[in-house]
Amino acid sequence: CVGSPLAGGRLGDLRLREEHGVSVIGQWYGGVFTTIKGPETRVDPGAILVAVGVHANLEKVERMAMPIRRTGPIVVAGYGAVGQKVVEMLHDAGEACVVIDRMSAAGVDVVGNVLEQAVLDQAKVREASAVILALSDDSESVFATAAVRDYAPEVPLIVRVLRTPNTVRLYRSGADFAISVGQVAGQILAYHLLAEQVSHVENRIKFSRVTAGDLAGAHPWRSPALERTGAKVIAVERAGDVLVEFNDGFTVRPDDVLFVCGSTNSLERYQREFQPAAAPAARS
Question: How far apart are CA 59 and CA 250, in angstroms?
Answer without folding.
Answer: 24
